[in-house]
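Subject: Sanity check before I submit

Could someone independently write out the structure tokens for this chain? I want to compare against mine line by line before I put it in a report. The sequence has 89 residues.
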Amino acid sequence: MSDGAAPLRLEGPVTLATYTRLRAALDAHLAAGGRVVDWAGVGVIDSSALSLLLHVRRSGAAGRVEQRNLPGALDALATLYGVSELLTV
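---
Independent answer below. Compare away.
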């Protein structure tokens, strides 16, 4: 699915404290035609990680964005919050 554009590489925690900055970076990436988000550098996550994924879905870009190296804990969080069926990544 990669279109040759540089992926957005997320680094560090994806938490409430970093959400606003990461969402702005994600929005800029999508607006510039970016289609790959790499989560390999992410350590700690909370429900803000789900919020970022759902933001991509709501933006209409879900089918065009490849999410790489998603944190393993994301599935458990999605199940806990009852949103697993909304996240087809």
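---
OP: Matches mine. For the report I'm noting this point. The first strand starts at residue 8 and ends at 14.
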